[in-house]
Amino acid sequence: MSDNTQSPLDDPQVSPHEVAKQAATQLAEKTGIERHDIALTLGSGWGRAADLLGETVAEVPASEIEGFSASGVPGHSGTLRSIRLANGRHALVIGARTHFYEDRGVRRVVHSVRTAAAAGATVMILTNGAGGIKRHWRPGTPALITDHINLTAASPLEGATFVDLTDLYSPRLRGLAREVDPEFEEGVYVQFRGPHYETPAEVRYAEIIGGHIVGMSTGLEAIAAREAGMEVLGMSLITNLAAGISDEPLSHAEVIAAGKSAEGKLAKLLAEIVGRI
Ligand code: 8IG
Fold it and tell me: Between the CA atoms of 127, 130, 132 and 137, what dihedral angle is there, to the nearest 10 degrees?
């Protein structure tokens, strides 16, 4: 059904939106929740947030849902979790991200977002761990994404699908986040393909073209969310200063460690934001 080699998403004749609809139907069957109102993708450092959001109603291995595949990245869990919020609405927590650098195709990258939309979600919260360019940032700093620059040379949209990306990162939702933390840092997210981190020259380039955050995930997902008509909130945990900004070399272990120590703070922050949506 959904192993890594055979997926209807790999068939160009099949619409990825149809696959997402099937996935949403399976999700409703397996969770017993007909409709999810908001969806969250939890990246490095954000994983514990799910526990504070509300009561977990169901947790489904992503591999049991059409189009999903197990995550290849340590620190990323491969489940879809249905959570009942205090206000009675339902959140879908996506702990299974496929990155563009995994080379399984951009359809796989945005399948979770399309599934969330097909499941009824009108708000998509995308979180990630990322590198920071602003000099005053320290590992463990959360930052709101205000806009992005997509350097992957890819798009999740197929054919002549001209989607407006003005205000892609919802001013309304950013406003709510700033109510929770008026000091919330913010910046423009630059998506690189990865999986290598940038060279210092690439980081200088990202800064010159208007970037503040460097990452490998969220831009393509945000585009698919906008195509699906969702409101998008993007947040990065700055787990490391981008290459060349500090003298420290970058390591995945350091990224995981920064995520772990920020987890409690991020969980509280995210729960407060979701409570206001
Ligand atoms: I965590 O420094 C994390 N993800 N591109 N650069 C890019 N992605 C990242 C980085 C980083 N840190």
Answer: 60
